[in-house]
């Protein structure tokens, strides 16, 4: 009896150790793409040009990101992420000293940290914050011609959202972000609602 069952026990043990461990969705590196709504607002000044009154524009935003998750405990996840976004049909029309001013946000990137809590095994609620940079080009119509200027505006970003594991490799998220670019001669704010899909390695 012992000799007959021993091979079965050894085979079962070998299968257990040979089987790959189930991947942790919120553990390790990931990449993703995002799309959503963007609202850009300018006031006071932008690229050193005075702005007569606040102006804004709603537009489509597209982007990509890469990051790394680390589970501090069974429920707590922390991580770091780098992202890049660009908006579509996003030119903001304003005025400077009564003259036509067009503000064209070109692209932006950010470096953020995030911390989250797993409310279930598949649902992560999180907050994020960090550094953001926005490239902006302005065109001022002086009547005698256009005066163009470009600058990179430094700022910060805060946000939060929910990410859900569809499979052990694929997750989806929805997130709100607020960015403030109040340095380097600009007063530019951005509100975004982003939908993203991530691939977790």
Cα-to-Cα separation, first versus last residue: 45 Å
What percent of residues are in strands? over 45%
Share of helical residues:
under 10%
CATH-assigned fold name: Porin
Spans of at least 5 consecutive residues with low confidence:
1-22
Shape: elongated
Rg over C-alpha atoms, rounded to the nearest angstrom: 24 Å
Instruction: Please tally the helical runs, counting DSSP H or I stretches of 4 or more residues.
Output: 1
The helix/strand series, from N terminus to C terminus, equals HEEEEEEEEEEE
| CATH architectural grouping | Beta Barrel
Using the coordinates above, name the CATH class. Answer: Mainly Beta
Largest sheet: 8 strands, antiparallel, barrel
The number of distinct β-strands equals 11
Biggest sheet, strands in spatial order? 1-4-5-7-8-9-10-11
Overall residue-averaged pLDDT value: 87
| Whole-number count of domains | 1
Helix/strand class: mainly beta
